[in-house]
Amino acid sequence: MVTSCSVILVVTVHEFIPNWLPLMFPSRFHVSSLILFALAGIQVAVVEMGRPAWAIEGDGRSTQFDLVILHGRIVDGTGAPWYVADIGIKQGIITRIGRLTSDSASQVIDATDLVVAPGFVDMMGQTATPMLRDPSTAINLLTQGITTINAGEGSSAAPVSALEAGSTGWQNMAEYFQMLDLSGLPVNVVQTVGHTQVRKLVMGEDDRRPSNDELLTMQQLVREAMEAGAIGVSTALIYPPAVYATTEEVGALAKTAGEFGGRYYTHMRNEGDQLLEAINETLEIGKLGDCPVHIFHLKAAGKKNWSKMPLALAQIRSARDHGQQVTADIYPYVNNGLGIEALIHPRHFGQGKANFLSLLNTDLSLRQEIRKEIETTDGWENWYRHAGSDWNRIIIGQTNAPEYRTLVGQSVAAIAKSKGEDAWDTFFNLCIAGSFALPETMSEANKILAMQNNFVSFCTDVGPAGGSLSASHPRAFGSFPRLISKYVRGLGAMSLEQAVSQASATACNSVILYDRGRIVEGLAADLIVFDYDALLDTADFQNPHAVSQGMRHVVVNGEAVLTDGKQTSHLPGRVLRGPGFDSEHAAWEIVNGQAHAAFAAVDRVLQEFIQEHRVPGISIAISDQSRLVYARGFGFADVGKKTPVAPDSLFRIASISKPVTAVAILQLVDQKKLTLDDKVFTILEDDFQLPNDVQPDPRLAEITIRQLLQHRGGWDRDASFDAMFKSTEFAKSLGVPPPAQPLDIIRVMRGKPLDFSPGEKYAYSNFGYCLLGRVIEKLTGQSYEAYVVQEVLKPLGITEMQLGATRLDGRKAKEVRYYDPRLGASVFADTLGTLVPQPYGAWNLEAMDSHGGWLASASDLVRFASAFDFPETSSLLSAQSIREMFDRPDGQAGYDANGTPKMTYYGLGWSVAIDAKGQVTASHSGSLPGTNTFLSRRPDGRNVALLFNTRVSAKTSRVVNSIWPQLTEALDQIEQWPQWDLLEEKPAQ
């Protein structure tokens, strides 16, 4: 336990901190333009629920925490000496440092004999995209204590071309960030926009200067990224085509970033023979851009250049002394890493990398020319000579060449010897195939010299790399534990306090994160807990994927991301947006439509939900006694174009299409063209002939219209499959181009056995409603859409509701864009099997017409639902049909085994719930990747339509389910409902 004396000392130091810290680190105490709170990873001990006030010993205050970390040896990130204290965390924030107790929180970490520190920042984490696809790829980061990565080094995940967007799901930075926010991440992300990225997008790989128009276009791309929340522009000036850029070109982009408070981050043009000149250029770019600069993985490459490291550090210190904000990072290894083709002079890539490598594959004279150039020339980044012109000092970490894959982790010389080849031939073969090399070019002395400067932070230069063999340098898994185990604990090159400070606070300052990086009350609780004596990197060149040891817990503001060294399923990480992001124009601040004080609580619920869950957009409409009294749009219909959701924005409503189809069927019943007990395949029998050798399940002949409407037809997707999502399989079985269309699907399904006898029970079936669409077509002689538009929608004054299209190029006027972070295999013939964004090609919306294909606004849907408010005067259906629509089905679908009526059941196109007072609520939800919708007919005569252009958030798999209880509570609290009808008049405020 912590002694009383220790508590007094801790409190005294803590209270003194605000007075002296700003003097030492003034930039750390600026207010960020946006503070995003992420939750943290911990080992938990659940305490007894329902306790009274939570008492904190020693200070007389009562507080309940979400998490307390007890008895830890706190290294707080400021560089101050460690001390022992407890930490209380609530809602992702460090709210108390002092003496706490285990019963003051619902979750407890016992950190006795362990170090508690701020989470580390990977200053060069390359990209967050692997975590978007697979969160387990963060295991290499978490086991090092990394809680934030800085992504982007010349290349960046966005912007991309329209063609590439067809496979990624995003085109610009705003859309990319939206995907990261929706998926959730194990760690936080800050992002730079890559100079290489925008240059290639505008100019390709050409070795030339941009025209004025091209430069303006590049600046606009940077501007869009900065407004989305990028922290600056980054370069990789060693690699083509960035190597062709002038200082002025890069400075112009840095200036654009600087206008938004951003920074310039760089892999400099040279890290060896011209190291000092490269630093001068970096400083000049910072001046041109009027922005701070940060140098990625500072090094002096090549033995003859090792003496330049003191001069390089002196240059940086001098610039800082003269008021220029300059920082740098290193990784604690003497082998760097790069694509092996970087050993070739960049001038050879001026016509594109692919063209050059093709020539290299066949032109022996070209090989001789390049060999001579590498062996004899300076004045460029000659990594072969930096490695002492010795193939034994150039390790191959990864290769696409099958003949060499079993030899990775060995030097080029060793690989050549194993294969009986000349080392130069091996080198060229590795270049052509694509390989990653690790030249030994640096010195341990320079590593120590660099890390002893307080403006130097640390990186992996890899980012998320777990769960695959993509990482080929041990730095991916070992950088930060190696820093502490080798240089702090082993060599004593720096104190633990200073190492932690530079890995956390210094790094946070360098990526414009002033709300974290130190253990101080009021800051974000990105925290790590590790065993100082056991912390150890285990990765090496032969096994670069070996996980580091000794990191016990990682806390990213309140949720467990690493517990006892094991990654959890929690994904509390967020995009931490830079100063160019204007929170006043964030999605949660965007509201369209008529406001009214009566709905203030509804507005608040929706805005707070968008902010908490980072969903793109919501549309909502409410009717009261058939009057449209509320219709508003929140957030963005199109994140990339910043188009707001409007009250008349169209959304895919998914399965809310079923009530629409049910009404069309009941109209035919009212018209005496059909009865609910008619046999479906008696109506459709002639249309779906089976091959002679296929015998249909005889029970198919017994399926009735009523059973299809009530999901009692005999198909159970949980027992077998959902026929409507078998587009490619069914098309292949019939020999038709994919995706299969409704008639194809029905042909195949007639040859499949039923999962249960018709009428026996309820089992939700999209296929049953597909059949109902064909019944409508058979009996009316019209297409399903044409009939519904003319006979169901037009009488209600609904004019814009229509069937949607699957692919983005089929997007309708006023239709929103849909956001889902996942990819799926395309079901369309021209892109069959390729990965595409889930909402745009991984299934076939056109085939879902009668069960899930409609587009509608929220206002359209409440108008539709209001058509049944007064059954005797409905313009759509008879009073009898309306009653039957909500009636309880017979058998197991409506009654339990004892014959007691079920209080929830599925009627004719609606889910029905009856409460204890006998009040009836009818509703339907809709769900597809990128879409979540809900339509409710409340017993108080009010209808509510709620539409999202995403289905998931980082916190929930169904956004409607998460918001509906709060929204219902807000609606129930409304005492005075407006008397206007938005369809007939423009109400006064």
Total number of strands = 35
Estimate the strand proportion: 15-25%
What general outline do the C-alpha atoms trace?
Answer: globular
Poorly predicted tracts of residues: 1-61
Q: Whole-number average pLDDT?
A: 92
- Largest sheet features: 9 strands, mixed
Rg estimate, integer Å: 32 Å
* Residues in helix, %: 25-40%
Discrete helix count: 30
| Distance between the amino and carboxyl termini | 61 Å
Structural class, from helix and strand content? alpha+beta
Description:
- It is built from 30 helices and 35 strands.
- Strands 1, 2, 3, 4, 5, 18, 19, 20 and 21 form a nine-stranded mixed sheet that branches. Strands 22, 23, 24, 25, 31, 32, 33, 34 and 35 form a nine-stranded antiparallel sheet that branches.
Quick tags:
single chain, 989 residues, 9-stranded mixed beta sheet, 9-stranded antiparallel beta sheet, disordered N terminus
Topology:
Layout: H1 4-24, E1 67-74, E2 83-90, E3 93-98, E4 108-110, E5 115-118, E6 120-126, H2 129-133, H3 139-142, E7 146-151, H4 162-168, H5 173-183, E8 188-191, E9 193-194, H6 195-203, H7 212-228, E10 232-236, H8 247-258, E11 263-267, H9 275-289, E12 293-295, H10 309-321, E13 326-330, E14 338-339, H11 353-362, H12 364-376, H13 383-386, E15 394-399, H14 412-419, H15 423-433, E16 435-439, H16 444-451, E17 456-458, H17 475-490, H18 496-510, E18 526-530, E19 551-556, E20 560-563, E21 566-567, E22 591-593, H19 600-613, E23 617-624, E24 627-638, E25 643-644, E26 651-652, H20 657-670, H21 680-684, H22 705-709, H23 727-734, H24 742-749, H25 766-780, H26 784-793, E27 802-803, E28 823-825, E29 835-837, H27 849-852, E30 854-856, H28 858-866, H29 879-885, E31 904-906, E32 911-914, E33 920-928, E34 931-937, E35 942-948, H30 959-972
Parallel strand pairs: 1-4, 1-5, 6-7, 7-8, 9-10, 10-11, 11-12, 12-13, 13-17
Antiparallel strand pairs: 1-2, 2-3, 5-18, 14-16, 15-16, 18-19, 19-20, 20-21, 22-24, 23-24, 23-35, 24-25, 26-30, 27-30, 28-29, 31-32, 32-33, 33-34, 34-35
Helix pairs in contact: 6-7, 7-8, 8-9, 9-10, 11-15, 14-15, 19-30, 20-25, 20-26
